[in-house]
Amino acid sequence: MSRSPQKQPTPESFLPVPPATFHILLALADGDLHGYAIMQDVAQRSEGAVRLGPGTLYGALKRLLEARLVDESGERADPERADERRRYYRLTPLGLAVARAEARRLDAIVRTARRKKLIGARPA
Question: For 97-117, what is each residue's pLDDT tens digit?
Fold first, then answer.
């Protein structure tokens, strides 16, 4: 019995990405981070508007790991100062492609909102 090769998912097949998940992908786009650092990055980047609680963060990371959008990294930013209990996460190539696809999708929505004068400069 021969197995047919499993079809690879396309980045677009993951869209739309839930907001909390997209924030995690954005945080990891800069490099490997542990969970608490992801929470801090999201809060700082959103100027406090988005705060990921541990349940939301680790539930999303579990789904991202299962979907192979994120990997656990064996590397530590500073091995001498790293807490061995901390798990570091990084984007996979598919995860980066999904983040890019979601950013393009959101950009198209924002461009439409601007054309409809819902945001941005208003006519005189």
Answer: 999 999 999 999 999 999 999
